[in-house]
Each structure stands twice: as C-alpha cells, then as structure tokens.
TrEMBL record, chain A:
Pfam families in alphabetical order: Mo-co_dimer, Oxidored_molyb
PANTHER family per UniProt: SULFITE OXIDASE, MITOCHONDRIAL (PTHR19372:SF7), SULFITE REDUCTASE (PTHR19372)
Organism domain of life: Bacteria
Keywords: Metal-binding, Molybdenum, Oxidoreductase
Protein name: DMSO/TMAO reductase YedYZ molybdopterin-dependent catalytic subunit
SUPFAM superfamilies in the cross-refs: E set domains, Oxidoreductase molybdopterin-binding domain
InterPro entries recorded: Ig_E-set, MoCF_OxRdtse_dimer, Mopterin_OxRdtase_euk, OxRdtase_Mopterin-bd_dom, OxRdtase_Mopterin-bd_sf
The organism's taxonomic lineage, starting at the top: Bacteria, Pseudomonadati, Bacteroidota, Flavobacteriia, Flavobacteriales
Domain Oxidoreductase molybdopterin-binding: 87-255
Domain Moybdenum cofactor oxidoreductase dimerisation: 287-405
Cofactor(s) recorded in Swiss-Prot or TrEMBL: Mo-molybdopterin
TrEMBL record, chain B:
SUPFAM superfamilies, A to Z: Cytochrome c
Coiled coil: none
GO molecular function per UniProt: electron transfer activity; heme binding
Domain of life: Bacteria
Organismal lineage: Bacteria, Pseudomonadati, Bacteroidota, Flavobacteriia, Flavobacteriales
InterPro entries (UniProt xref): Cyt_c-like_dom_sf
Protein name in the entry: Sulfite dehydrogenase (Cytochrome) subunit SorB
C-alpha cells in the first residue's frame, strides 16, 4: 500500500508534466476526481474529424484516414490526416499574426501582417496533393522508427493563398539564395521555448513555383487550426513536412536550411540503395524532394462481396509528386495480367488524378484488386515494398483490396 | 556576597535555559525522525479516513489500474519495468508512439540516445536497462517480409 502511495505521488509528478505546470494543491485532489486537463479529449470532436479516422498518437496528435474515406475528389477537412511534430498552438490572435522574412540571402528583413499579405498580393487557388513522407511506414521490415502510418497520410484539398514567389520578389532576395526554411508557432513536446518541433523548407526553385503558396484557406474556408491556421506553407507533391503549419517566419538561406528535422536522418533516404536493416552514415543520406508515384483504391471498401456475373466498379486517385500520372492499371491475378483504368487529367499541376474501371471476374472465389500507377517518366509503383530505408519513408507499393465473388 | 549570589543565580537560570532548549531540540528531533521513518505515525486513524480504503473500494478510479494485462491509462502491456517506462517515457509523448514501434535492443538504445541528444530526454541512469529490457521483451520486432497478406478483412455485401 505504501507502494501505491508512492506511485500515486510519482504519477502526480508526471501528471504535472502532461499538463505542463505544477498542480497547486495536487495533494488535495480527491481520490475519485479526474483533472479536466486529463480527461481524455475527444480528438474527433476537437479537430472535427470523422469517427472512422485512426488516431496513431495523442501526443503529439497524429491521425490518418482509411482508404475508403478518401473517395472524394477533393479531400474534405474531416478526412484530412493530421501530422504533428509538436504541440498545436493555442490562443492564436489572428489580428496580431505576422510573418517575417529574414535570413542570409534576404536583402532586407521585412514583416507583414496577415492583412497586408492578403491585400498586397494576388490570391491563387490550387488543388494540391500533400502526403506525409512516412506514409506506408508500417509495412517496412525490419520495422522503421516513428508513427506507423498505413496508407492514410495523404490528402488533396484546395488551398488558397498568395504565391511565395510574389512575396519573395517583393521582399527582395540575393543571388546566392539556395533554400527557404520556415519557422512556426507550434511548441516543442518538451515545452522548451528554445526548441522548435520542426523547421523544414525547400530549395529556391521549389519556393519559386507558381503552386507554392502561403495559404490561408483550405477548401474555401479558414484553414482548420490543426492544419495550420491562420497561415501555412503549401508545397504540393513534396513530403508534407515541407508544408509548414502556423508559419510566422521564413528564412531565405545561402545554405541548405539546417533547421529542426532537416539534419541527421529526418526526411532523408540513403543516397545509394542499401540492404534491409543496413546502417547508413548521416552524410550518406539525401533529402527527400518530390514524392514517388502512388495510387489508392478508394471505392469500394476492402471486403466487398458481389454476386457472380456482376461487374465491380472501382475508383480511386493517383499522384506522382512533381510529375503527372500517365497510366493506371489494375490486376485481379496478382500482377500476372494488367488492364488499364480510365484516367482523368489533374485539376491543375500537383493535384491527384482520378481513375476508374469496371471489372468482370471469371469465376467465384477470393480476389484481390491491385492498382498500379505509372508516372510521366514511365516509372510504376512496385508490387512489393520499395527499397528499405532506416526511417521508413516513401513506401509507394501498390494498394490492393479484397473482394469475394459468390 | 549578594553580588556573588546574584551571579550564581544568573548562571543557574542560564543553565536552566540551556537544559530546556536541549531537551526541546531532542524531542523535536525524535519526533522528526519518527515522521521521516513513517509519515503516517501522527495521523490519528480514528479521525481521518484511510486513503487505502477509498482506493480499494473504488477500483474504477485506480490511476494505475491493470486489466487483462494492459495498463489502462497508457495502453502499455503489464510487465517488469512497466512503471519505470510510464514515468520516464510518457512525459513528452504518448505511450502510443512507443507501442506502435518494434525495435531491437540496439535500436531502442539508439532511439533513447537520439531523444537525449535532441529532445531534452534526461539521463536515465540505472533505469535505462529496465526500460530497454521492458521494451524488447514486450514489443519485439516481428518479421513481415516484403509484403504481408491482407488480414482483418471485414466482409460486407456490396449494394449498388
């Protein structure tokens, strides 16, 4: 019983850690009372997410979709995955929000209020594919470290904002500019104010693209808090970690940005292929840029049973980072034969493309429908896991669903 | 003479003060040590309800309740070193981040080093061995090969 008291006291200590502050009168908390701050917050309600979304981690919050939830042509907020490295900022005062441009390669440091940014520069809207670099990590063997994403860390919403290049041109950047790095208002998990949870970026060439936005609207409305309200960077087709949320500063660098999660092994893969489980030196790791070709069958949900003789209509989306999709095929015999799907053009560059097919089955039984996309360079998705890498990034293996015909 | 008497009296009263002070210090000391040894020694059991009774009668509210081998508050498996893991590994991130992962001893240690180097994790001292042992015992890597079979399929008739 003494042990229980001891444990109780130590858990009060860790409880203080969870809440990030000391609990005054902690010793006087009645036995049966749960502190408000500890009552499990309902993430679905808090972030306006569909109940079928899957929570991977509650601190920091990470949540993914399942394939059939991503059936919409434009991903609604309720099905958009959540990826956080730190703590979602609280008490955002949008009137006071500013964004500062600084760094070695800026001609003169400049700060805009959100209103200035919105009124000074032209607004643009694009549908942009954002996929977490670690989407599909759960399949790697040996297992890779981190949140074990399956297939749902992907979404393609419409984003409205100003072009980063318009703002950079207005501010004035030097010829030696190499990279931009964002800084944001989220807090480090340890609540150490001197630490940033994440500060990544992209090369100047990507920053200067028409579709690279400082966005303030998602699907025509204010960006939801958990997705970066009131201002986020959107770099479609690149690992989602380059699309910084809650952005309040952009540094124009004369070196590759060296912020948090730009160094070490974060968002990097071995420059040369390695055997599964092999060790790689930090200097032999290369930063992930454009995401690879991939596709998802979003209808029907895996597990559909159909009567013999009936055709099965499938549909889904395909995307290929900076590239366009040239072809999507399906197979019902584990890759022995492939048939082509009907493929639509993208709504704009860097938007995913929709495909569909109507499939007949030769006899009753168990089937798997596999989809395989090919990009404009002729590169297709592998049916098996792609090259192993220590952090489990870039798994673009074919998606498949189970079907029974009876 | 009377001066000498007065002096003697002063010395005597000073001596008394010293004796009384010494006795007081002694008593406080003994009480203090007793309290340090057993903080409950001065709680009068008849007057104050015993917290142990409350916590055992209200099992639902046990902060560290374990059900079917699972520590309910965190989701960790019950096992040797559980509370050390709970107290050291769930301050910054949730237990879910640990539970999702499967690593060898070497890679768990590597992960701890990374957290110490970059994420403000403290020196775990002798607890490190307990923690790593708990993790490799309860969450060992599982071989998945190049592609796993589809599992947990929920079959449903497709209406169109």
């Amino acid at each position: 019983m003494k042990r229980r008291n001891f444990v109780k006291k130590t858990s009060l200590g860790s409880l203080a850690g969870i809440l990030g502050l000391d609990i005054v009168y902690g010793a006087k908390i009645p036995e049966n009372y749960t502190l408000l701050g500890l009552q499990d917050p309902d993430p679905f309600q808090m972030f306006h997410k569909d109940k079928e979304m899957v929570v991977l981690n509650s601190k920091p919050w990470n949540m993914e979709a399942v394939a059939h939830l991503l059936d919409d042509r434009i991903t609604p907020s309720k099905y958009m995955f959540i990826r956080n490295n730190g703590l979602v900022p609280e008490n955002i005062d949008v009137k006071e929000w500013t964004i500062t441009f600084d760094g070695e390669s800026i001609k003169e440091k400049k700060t805009f209020t959100l209103e200035e940014l919105k009124s000074k520069f032209a607004h643009h809207t694009y549908q942009l594919t954002i996929e977490c670099g670690g989407n599909g990590r759960s399949e790697f063997d040996p297992p890779a470290k981190g949140n074990q994403w399956t297939i749902g860390a992907i979404g393609c919403a419409t984003w409205t904002g100003v072009r980063l290049k318009d703002v950079l041109k207005d501010v004035g950047i030097k010829d030696d500019a190499v990279y931009i790095g964002y800084h944001a208002a989220d807090q480090h998990l340890s609540r150490d104010p001197n630490k940033e949870p994440i500060s990544r970026g992209v090369p100047i060439s990507k920053a200067m693209m028409d579709e690279t936005l400082l966005a303030f609207k998602m699907n025509g409305e204010d960006i939801p808090l958990v997705h970066g309200y009131p201002l986020r960077l959107v770099c479609g087709g690149w690992p989602a970690s380059t699309s910084g949320k809650w952005v309040n500063r952009i540094s124009v660098r004369n070196i590759v940005h060296d912020g948090e999660k730009m160094t070490g092994t974060s968002y990097k893969v071995p420059c040369n292929p390695i055997a599964p489980g092999e060790e790689v030196k930090d200097e032999d790791m290369c930063i992930i840029e454009s995401m690879p070709v991939k596709s998802l069958i979003t209808y029907p949900k895996s597990g559909a049973m159909i009567p013999k003789g009936k055709k099965l209509n499938i549909r889904g989306h395909a995307w290929a980072g900076e590239l366009e999709i040239s072809k999507v095929s399906y197979s019902i015999d584990f890759g022995a034969t492939w048939s082509e799907c009907l493929l639509e053009k993208p709504a704009n560059r860097l938007a995913w493309q929709h495909f569909k097919a109507s499939i007949g089955f030769p006899k009753s039984g168990y089937y798997e429908v596999w989809a395989r996309a090919t990009d404009s360079n002729g590169v297709s998705q592998p049916m098996l896991l792609p090259g192993w890498n220590p952090k489990g990034y870039l798994n673009n293996a074919c998606h498949r669903i189970a079907i029974k015909v009876s | 003479m009377s001066k000498q008497d007065k002096f003697r009296q002063q010395v005597k009263s000073f001596y008394n003060v010293i004796v009384v002070s010494f006795v007081l210090v002694l008593i406080i000391g003994v009480l203090g040590i007793t309290y340090m040894m057993d903080p409950s020694a001065f709680s009068f059991k008849g007057d104050t309800p015993n917290s142990e009774v409350i916590s055992t009668t209200r099992e639902d509210d046990d902060w560290d309740k374990i059900e079917n081998g699972i520590h309910l508050r965190t989701g960790f498996k019950d096992g040797e070193g559980l509370m050390t893991v709970v107290n050291n590994c769930t301050n910054c991130h949730s237990a879910q981040l640990v539970i999702q992962n499967r690593m060898s001893e070497e890679r768990w240690i590597e992960t701890i080093r990374w957290m110490q180097k970059t994420q403000n994790l403290w020196d775990l001292g002798p607890n490190e061995k307990i923690i790593v042992n708990y993790l490799v015992t309860n969450y060992p890597p599982k071989s998945k090969g190049r592609r796993e079979a589809l599992t947990n399929i929920e079959w449903f008739p497709l209406e169109e």
